[in-house]
Design the sequence.
């Protein structure tokens, strides 16, 4: 009887440890409110609109169709007649731009005229967590489990995700540390690396 109980306990432990890291109880990664920004931000991506809808800033994947297809937050103050280097087909207008603006957690409001990406020289922005000396705490099986859980619970707010250097890297529209803290609490520190597509114009 004792030996049988030991086998059962060992099997349970194997299931808990062998399937990778999972979220701890608490707020779901998809339930944490998206933080607003208290300063001007800059982002790079496709701006797109159709005849019936507002302009949207696509900071994630873009479908390679014609016209292209993508989605993102609404851009307040956009005027196609005031910008250059755009295309129009099938009732859809689009172009790629560097944009300055404010972010309230839901919409992006322009603060300066957009710059076509063809004319924009972006600054270098290297995440130190991609360097070997700053590797994360996860093994590949754990990170795959974390990535899957994030995509299931917070997929709509995650623009891209990939596994690199011991982390699950996730790109979101904007994070002031709120989402990073939430993911650290759910999955453990140095498991998830959150990156913001919108960056402060004048970082501290």
Sequence:
């Amino acid at each position: 009887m004792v030996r049988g109980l030991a086998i059962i306990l060992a099997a349970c432990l194997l299931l808990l440890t062998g399937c990778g890291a999972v979220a701890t109880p608490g707020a779901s990664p998809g339930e944490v409110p998206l933080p607003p920004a208290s300063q001007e931000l800059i982002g790079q991506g496709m701006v797109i609109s159709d005849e019936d809808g507002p302009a949207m800033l696509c900071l994630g994947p873009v479908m390679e169709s014609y016209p292209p297809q993508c989605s993102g937050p609404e851009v307040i103050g956009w005027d196609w007649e005031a910008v250059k280097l755009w295309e129009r087909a099938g009732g859809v207008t689009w172009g790629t731009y560097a944009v300055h603006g404010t972010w309230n957690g839901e919409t992006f409001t322009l603060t300066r005229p957009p710059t076509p990406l063809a004319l924009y020289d972006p600054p270098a922005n290297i995440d130190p967590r991609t360097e070997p000396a700053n590797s994360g705490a996860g093994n590949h099986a754990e990170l795959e489990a974390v990535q899957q859980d994030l995509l299931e619970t917070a997929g709509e707010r995650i623009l891209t995700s990939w596994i690199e250097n011991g982390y699950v890297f996730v790109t979101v529209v904007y994070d002031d540390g709120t989402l990073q803290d939430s993911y650290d609490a759910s999955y453990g520190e140095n498991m998830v690396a959150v990156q913001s597509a919108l960056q402060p114009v004048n970082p501290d």
Notes: The helical segments are 2-18, 140-154, 178-187. Confidence is low (pLDDT under 50) at residues 1-21.
